[in-house]
Amino acid sequence: MCKHLKDARNVFNGLEALALYVHFSKRAKDHKLKNMQNKLGLKNTKLEQLSDTRWVCRFKSCNALIQNYKSILMTLDDEILEQKSKYVAQAIDSSVHTYIEYSASVKRNNSGPIG
User: Fold this and answer.
1) What domain of life (predicted)?
2) Which range in 47-51, 53-57, 70-74 is most confidently predicted, on average pLDDT?
3) Do residues 57 and 49 lie in contact, with contact meaning Cβ atoms separated by under 8 Å?
4) Structure pTM?
């Protein structure tokens, strides 16, 4: 049980880092994500900022990451190639990969309705 709590905390910390990276960066990053979603034929979805008291924000953020995983990775990869932000690699590492590992673990254990 404790391992799962640690995993969940890591996931939400990663999601928060990604949301903060997108929300508190220049509006260009949000625009790039929307363009990538359009290019891939995905619905435009914003990453929600997390709240300690409102779990619906966490659910929406997890859901947005699942639905837009490819567009988020491609947008962050473009940022790395452009080398305009030294924080993009940290955003990828701390959020996306942690979340995907955890969601795979949840699916294996059939512990919840993710994805």
Assistant:
1) Eukaryota
2) 70-74
3) yes
4) 0.54
Distance from C-alpha of 53 to C-alpha of 47, rounded to nearest angstrom? 17
What is the structure's pLDDT at 82?
Answer: 72
As a whole number, mean pLDDT of residues 86-99 equals 62
| pLDDT top residue among 1 and 60 | 60
Rg over alpha carbons for the chain, rounded to the nearest Å, is 14
Contact 96, 16 (CB under 8 A): no
Query: Do 84 and 76 form a contact (C-beta atoms < 8 A)?
Result: no
Using CA atoms, how far apart are residues 53 and 62, in angstroms rounded to an integer? 16
In 3-state terms, the chain is what percent helix, strand and coil (to 5)?
75, 0, 25
